[in-house]
Hints:
Strand content of chain A: 25-35%
Largest interface: A-B, 25 and 27 residues
CATH class of the largest domain in chain A: Alpha Beta
Helix content of chain A: 25-40%
Distance between the termini of chain A: 50 Å
Largest sheet of chain A: 5 strands, antiparallel
Number of strands of chain B: 29
Mean pLDDT of chain A: 96
Radius of gyration of chain B: 28 Å
Order of helices and strands of chain A: EHEHEEEHHHHHHEEHEEEEEEEHHH
Number of helices of chain B: 20
Distance between the termini of chain B: 51 Å
Shape of chain A: globular
Low-confidence stretches of chain A: none
Shape of chain B: globular
Strand content of chain B: 15-25%
CATH architecture of the largest domain in chain B: 2-Layer Sandwich
Strand order of the largest sheet of chain A: 4-5-10-6-7
CATH superfamily of the largest domain in chain B: Aldehyde oxidase/xanthine dehydrogenase, molybdopterin binding domain
CATH topology of the largest domain in chain B: Aldehyde Oxidoreductase, domain 4
Number of strands of chain A: 14
CATH architecture of the largest domain in chain A: 2-Layer Sandwich
CATH class of the largest domain in chain B: Alpha Beta
Strand order of the largest sheet of chain B: 3-5-1-12-9-10-11
Bound molecules: flavin-adenine dinucleotide
Structural class of chain A: alpha+beta
Oligomer: heterodimer
Amino acid sequence: MKARAFSYFRARTIDEALDAAARSGDEARFIAGGQSLVPALALRLQAPRLLIDINHIDDLSGVTREGEWLRIGALTRHCQMLTEPLIAQFAPLLRAAAPYVAHPAIRNRGTLGGSVALADPASEFPAVVLALGAEMEIAGPAGRRRVGADEFFVDLFETALAPGELLVAVHVPLFRANQRIAFDELARRRGDYALVGCGMIATVEQDLIADIRVALFSVGNVPTRARSVEAALAGACLDADRIAAAQAALDGDLAPDDSDDVPAAMRLHLARVLLGRLLGSLLGRLGETA
Amino acid sequence: MSAPLTSLDRPNSYIGRAVPRPNAKRLLAGRGRYVTDIRLPRMLHAAFLRSSHAHARIISIDAEAARALPGVHLVATGPDLAKICTPWTGTLDHFKGMTSEPQLPLPLERVVWAGQAVVAVVAESRALAEDALELISVDYEELPAVVDLDAARQSGAERVNPAVGSNICFRAQLDSGGVDDAFASALHVIEQDFSFGRHTPVTLEPRAIIADYESESGMLTVHHATQTPYQFQDLYSRHYGIPEARVRVIAPDIGGSFGMKLHVYHEDMAVVGLSMLLGRPVKYVADRIESFVSDIHARDHQVKARMAVDAAGKILAMDVHDVTAIGAFSTYPRTSVVEGNQVIRLIGAPYDFKSYRAALEVVFQNKVQTSQYRAVGHPIACAVTERMVDLAAARVGLDPLAMRANNVIADDAYPTASPTGYKFEALSHQACLERLRRLMDYDALRAEQAELRRRGIHRGIGIATFVEITNPSPAFYGVGGARISSQDGATLSLTPSGEVRCAISVTEQGQGTEAIISQIVADQLGVAQEHVKILTGDTEVTPHGGATWACRGAGIGGETALQAARQLKANILEIAGLILQEQPAALDIVDGQVVGKATQKPRLSVAEIARISYFRSDTLPPGTQAQLTVSHHFAPQGYPFAFTNGIQGCYLEVDVDTGFVKLLKHYVVEDCGRIINPMLVDEQLRGGVVQGLGAALFEECRYGETGQLLNGSLADYLVPMAMEMPDIVIDHVETPTADTILGAKGCGEAGTAAASACVLNAVNDALTTFGASINAIPITPARVLKALNRY
Ligand SMILES: Cc1cc2nc3c(=O)[nH]c(=O)nc-3n(C[C@H](O)[C@H](O)[C@H](O)COP(=O)(O)OP(=O)(O)OC[C@H]3O[C@@H](n4cnc5c(N)ncnc54)[C@H](O)[C@@H]3O)c2cc1C
């Protein structure tokens, strides 16, 4: 399959990119790492008239600390999640998830902004962003705004981004010493999209779980927070019974559909198993000092 | 049972040495020249509009807008090509009673599977051709699609071909007699149903073809990613009415084939016709999405099996019924019934029992055609047999390895025959089995398994014995009327500088054919391997021959090269004798030097003989005509097939909460007769095992109710990848065939033959404590969890 012909524009600034998008309306697409867009073009699932290349916009790059937040530029490549010291220190859940995203060649090009803007429900980073309670910085014709992760992911491949709006950065609350993370997924082969995956971040106070955010992916149309699970764990002392209760609570949070190879009941079962294993690993690390 | 020492085993022999393939570096450096890399002057590009329906009548095709698009040279439909191409039918005479509809490059009135090519567009570029496809509209009247195998067999079922009475393509029966009596008298009768998912070869390089017809000379040149250039030369000649000598088929570097690239594909036939209609070169490369819906599929089988066993665990009889679905047509020219035929003939083959009965039913369906893919039928036969052996062992209370030791044909029982009539010259089941026991450290592994099971870790050990068909004689295709050669030919020349050029009809798809042929020629002539150049894959350059399939490259092609080299050597020594005033019989060639046989002292270089013969023939005795080019053909005689054998073992862990299977280690002991290059044999086995492991755990073409392929992309169709593959430990027993001087049999399919059976047995072994049982392939997490009642 070969893509339909398109025009190409290399934007140098955010404003140039927004202008180009505004002029072309629905006919334009931003291209970042191209790891999802280019296959879609080749398969002619998408056929925009114009590609606006955002790879050369400096303001979309870089990882910086801003007060209590870590600002991660939209162009930060997946592979940088594994090498950037600030991410290791202040957003370890992103780093924990990165090895599960595709393969090295794809991680060299794919960007955090692209992954979050695309909002594939089977992708790791959108769920991690949700678990972290991150905020998305968006630039559009009407200026800048920040949208919290809980409001950002709207529906299947649909986010708070309006057509022509650019995701500029992802802001993550700084990781603290009394927090613990856990991440894992069940994929048939290394690097595949998972049958089910889960990331979580817990705040521990005196061996109790003061607060926990749990997000799952590959379980529905959007990355999904397991709010009943969170409620079952908040303020509790983690033990085998509590883990079992959290697993049982998961049924209230998820309603996966049957797919041709994974029945809904199986996916729910796998989610429960995965949740149990992640909480078990958290249990072993509650008393550790960070 | 190692091979007796012969002249092939002398020190410094190239035969038996792990020399690297001369091609490997070139391909690794990106200097391969695949069909896709070839750009001819004035070349155009074809793309195909494909049917979205599994079964429909074509009412009308509107291609006006496509024809009007600038850069589009031709839009062709069924009738356009039917005018110049005669139809083909995928039946062979030795499969009595089989039927299949005639086929054309593009359909005239009905489409019979989703993905079938319907309209061809030829344009300046592939992208433009695809633009034009979007402008074509086809009006279809949908017909009921035959998708489900059981439904297809019902009387009164919807029919793939409404003009005939049923969906049955072929039926066959085997009966050695005595089966009912054996079952009646047996203490144990084991019964089990099996199902095997459809899968597809997935070569790294997809199908690719450039047809270049010159109307001025009437010459057709086809650059074709195929295993079998001669077969296609014959087919293009006959179906397009071009004299054979004016058809040239060139197979350049090929990126894997596994049997997939030796069948006639509708697009390939169409491309030849499109080039003839335009008088210009036309290229077509299947993209991956097209490959999934147009490359052959394989292995769609449902088997019912019964085994009778006595109190001591001796197998008395087997009775099997195999039903297989092959798509809407039988593939041309090798048919789609060989797989089923081999399934029923290979079941039980390693074991010593007399009474066997089998029935085969081959059914049409509205899906893409199935046909020969690496290890044709073997994995099905092996999985059924070996799972039945394990079930029997459990019933009798025997260890699986002991059960096999009790039942394999004894190494001293040869020559003998299987209950299905296959004649075995010499196999080595007992030796292989003992070797595997040691290789796996079987008893220690069992102890470890038991220990871990106590700690809630569920590991399984699986064993599978196998027999493989190699070196086929004309009994395979020729007797059925197919113009598919079982012989090969080689032309060997000594060049003026004393090097050797060998043009041979066996072909190279990445397995190292050229490497082993150069080893054999160098070895037999006594020259350095780097002084031997091998040419393959061009009908204008090499003699006609069968090429590479069914594990015949080494056994038949290798013997052809060996015999040709011996002739050339005799010719060289004859000249040497004249020059040196010696009896040729007293001379030999070592390291490019003619030496005295007794003294091994160099007398004259081969290069000097070449120089004199080519440039100073005046100095040779009058009447001497040096024959420094020989052509030689070899066809297998004696046994109709050279059977090989071996045994595989698998160690794995089942996560009983997720249903995931982790492969820990795989073991192979294999006997392919004379080993020419141990490294290449091991690579063949490893690659083959990996394909079998893919089948066991990952690969399946899943169809929806309306006959749409649901997972036709590499994101959804899971091929085995390095991270999931275990280490594969290999050992060999060597029992050369006495039918040839070389003694080599095939090894390319041995890995695939038994790997999935091993995994099936190992998974079931891991699940025994749960009373769970799985008899379907692939073994997916869903199937494991279902068997364990986990959801
Ligand atoms: C073989 C393969 C395997 C993969 N496996 C995985 C996997 O296991 N897990 C996983 O999560 N992903 C996987 N991916 C997808 C990969 O991670 C993508 O890179 C990622 O989803 C998109 O990032 P990108 O930068 O490549 O975006 P692009 O492909 O460039 O763009 C994707 C979409 O996002 C839009 N977009 C991009 N950047 C912005 C922005 N800053 N603002 C607004 N819109 C924007 C584009 O317009 C486009 O619509 C895989 C990809 C491949 C090819």
